[in-house]
Amino acid sequence: MGDFVVGDADFELDGRPVRLLSGALHYFRVHESQWGHRLAMLRAMGLNCVETYVPWNLHEPRPGELRDVAALGRFLDAAAEAGLWAIVRPGPYICAEWENGGLPHWLTGPLGGRIRTRDAEYLARVERWFGVLLPQVVERQIDRGGPVIMVQVENEYGSYGSDQRYLRQLAAKLRDLGVRVPLFTSDGPEDHMLTGGSVPGVLATVNFGSQAREGFATLRRHRPKGPLMCMEFWCGWFDHWGDEHVVRDPADAAAALREILAAGASVNLYMAHGGTSFAGWAGANRGGELHGGPLHPDVTSYDYDAPIDEFGRATPKFWAFREVLAAYADGPLPELPSAPPELGAGAEAELDVWTPLGEVLDVLGGPERAFGQAPTFEELDVDRGVVRYRVDVPGPRQPYPLRARGLRDRAVVHVDGVRAGVLTEDSPELPSPVAGPARVELLVESLGRVNYGPRLGEPKGLTGGVLHERQFLHGVRATGLRLDAFDDAERVRGLRGLRGLPSRAPEGEAGLYRGSLSVEGAGDAVLELPSFTRGFVWVNGFCLGRYWVLGPQESLYVPGPVLREGANEVWVLELEGVGAGASVRVSAPAAG
Predict the structure, then answer these.
(1) In what residue span(s) does the Glycoside hydrolase 35 catalytic domain sit (predicted)?
(2) Average of pLDDT values for 256-271?
(3) Which CATH number fits the domain that encloses residue 388?
(4) pTM value?
(5) Burial label, 585 (beta-carbon count in 10 A; 0-12, 13-18, 19+)
C-alpha cells in the first residue's frame, strides 16, 4: 500500500520525494516466459520502474472478440514481483511502431478522420474497450498494494491533434472507471505540441533524445510547477525495411541521460528493452511532406539499439547507463540474472512440402466475394495479411496500360496465369500493356499500417480501383487472408501440401512451405531463410513475423521457449517467389 502523488516539485511516495528511473518494456513484444528475466535486467541496470503500452488491436482483433486482456495484469504482477513500479500507457492510440498505432482496423476503417477526436461513436468504442481493459490496471494501483503509479492520457496527442475537449473527456473516463493514481500526458518539447497535447490539471511530460535543458525549459514555460520528467528518452531508434540499421553511440546516449538526471528530472528509457514485433504486428511510417510521403515499413525486430538487446543481453549501452544510474541508487545495484539458455547446436532443414498460394487462400481465406469496385482490406476484415483480387479485362481490345490506383502496399500481378510484375505504391503500373480479353490477378499485401502522423488509419488494398487505360475495371472478386487464420493449426495441416501428398514446389513459386527442424539443446536462436524473398514464418505454430530479403534485418529471433527438443515444425508463407533450395536454418545468436 502507498500514496503516490504529483507534488509541486517532485513525485512523492507517502510524503517523501522520489525520482522515477523507468524503462520501457512492452509485454506484448516479449515471450511471457521471459518477462521475469527482462524485468530483472531492468533492475540490474539501476531502474526502479517499468513502462508499457497496451495495444488495443492485439487484444480485440474483431469487435467484441477479446484475446487475453489479462496478459497486462500478469505482466504488472511480474513487475511487482521484480520490485518495480509500473507506468501504464493504455492509449487508445499508442504509436509504438505498432500496426495502426494500436487502433483496430475495424475502428479506423469506418470512422476515418473521426478517430482521436470528441466524436461520439469513437468515444463510445473507447469507453467499451476501457471498461474491459482498465480493471487489470485499477486493481493493481499502488494504493491497493500493486505496482501501478501513473496512467497516461492518450499518447503524444500534440503531434496529431488539438481537440482539448477530447482529451478532457478521455481523462474523465479514466477517472470514472476507477483510475486514482496520477494521470499524465507526454509530448514533444515544442509549443504547439504541448498546447495541443496537454490537459489542465494533468501532469505534462516531454519526449526527446537529447538537449534536456532546452526541452525542460520549454516545458517550464507551459508548466511552471510540477516534477520534470522525460517520458521517452530516445536512447536508440527503430529500423525500416530497405534502410540502414540505426545505432546510437553508448557514450553519447549516456551523456544525454546524465544531463536529464542532473536537471533533477525523472526519466523513462525508450526503449530499455525493445523485443520483437511478432506475428506481423510491426507498423509503418511515412516520410517527408509532413508525414504524407513514401511508406517506410518497420522491420520485425524492435531491438531499437536498446541497452538490453533483442535477445535480452546487456550491451555496452547497458553498462554505460548502469554506471550513470548507480549514482542515484539507494545501495549497490543487483547482479545480472542468469542468461536464458541459447540453442545448443545449429540445424538446417529443407522445406520439402509445398501448397500453392492459391490453395492457401481458398482454404484459409474468406470466401471469394464479388464487388462492383475493389474493396479495401478493412471492408474485407483483414488486419494483417493479404488479399487476392481478380478482375477481367473485356475484349477484344488493344493493349493498354494497367494500373492499380491507390495501391497500398505491394502487389504481385499475374495476367492469364503468367506473372506480369510487382507493383508498389510508387510504381503502380505494369511494365507491359495488357490486351483484352484477359484475366488479371493481384495478390496485395499490407506492409504495416501507419503508426504515426496524419495518415494514421489510412486503408489498405486497392483503395482506388484497377484502371485499364483510363477505364475502371468492374466486377472485382476478392478473397482476404488474415495472418491469424494460421492460429488454427489443424486447419493449416489440412492443406494438401501439409497432408504430405506429393507437393514439391517448382522453383520460384509462392506458397506455403513446410519442413521439420531437428533441435538439440533448445534455447534462444536466430532463423535464416537464405532462398526466400518475402513473407512470414512460423515455428511450432508461433509466428516469428515478416522476413524480407530487402534488409537490413537478415534473420528472425526465435525465443527459446518456442523451440523443443527433437522435431520442430516450420511453416513459411512465401508471397513472391523462392530461389533454388527452399531451406531454413537455426543457430545460436551471434555474440553481442
Answers:
(1) 11-327
(2) 98
(3) 2.60.120.260
(4) 0.97
(5) middle
Residue 30 CA to residue 563 CA, distance in Å, equals: 15
**Model confidence pLDDT, tens digit, residues 185-242:** 999 999 999 999 999 999 999 999 999 999 999 999 999 999 999 999 999 999 999 9
Please report which residue ranges of 157-205 form alpha helices under DSSP H: 164-176, 191-197
Copy the grid coordinates of residue 410: 505491394
Domain of 551, in residue numbers:
347-356+485-587
The amino acid that residue 40 corresponds to is A
423, 512 Cβ separation under 8 angstroms: no
Together in a domain, 303 and 179? yes
Phi, psi of 40 (to 5 degrees): -65, -35
Q: Are strands 229-234 and 266-273 parallel, antiparallel or unpaired?
A: parallel
**Residues belonging to the active site:** 156, 232
Shared-domain flag, residues 278 and 134: yes
Residue 249 in any domain: the answer is yes
Query: Above 50 in pLDDT, residue 502?
Result: no
Q: Which helix (H) or strand (E) holds 445?
A: strand 434-445
Calpha distance 149→3 (Å, rounded): 9
Residue 209 is part of a domain; what is its CATH number? 3.20.20.80
Which has the closest alpha carbon to 449: 281, 278, 242, 287? Answer: 281
What is the count of structural domains for the chain? 3
Q: 48 and 183 in one domain?
A: yes
**DSSP per residue, 75-135:** HHHHHHHTT-EEEEE--S---TTBGGGG--HHHHHHHGGGTTSS-HHHHHHHHHHHHHHTH
- Same-domain check for residues 259 and 126: yes
Rounded Cα–Cα distance for residues 589 and 229 (Å): 36
Average pLDDT on 372-384 reads 97
Residues 6+ apart with CB under 8 A from 499: 493
Residue 168: strand, helix, or coil: helix
Query: Does the residue 331 lie in any domain?
Result: no
319 to 71, 85, 307, 309, 326: CA distances (angstroms): 30, 22, 8, 12, 10
Q: Are residues 303 and 391 in the same domain?
A: no
Q: Report yes or no on 480 lying in a domain.
A: no
Same domain, 451 and 546: no
Q: Are residues 536 and 412 in the same domain?
A: no
Query: In terms of DSSP bridges, do strands 284-286 and 295-297 run parallel, antiparallel, or are they unpaired?
Result: antiparallel
Task: State which of 415, 448, 474 marks the end of a domain.
Answer: 474
Count of residues making up the chain? 592
Residue 169 confidence (pLDDT) above 90: yes
3-state secondary structure of 273: strand
Among 474, 502, 526, which residue terminates a domain? 474
CA–CA–CA angle 299, 300, 306 (5° rounding): 85
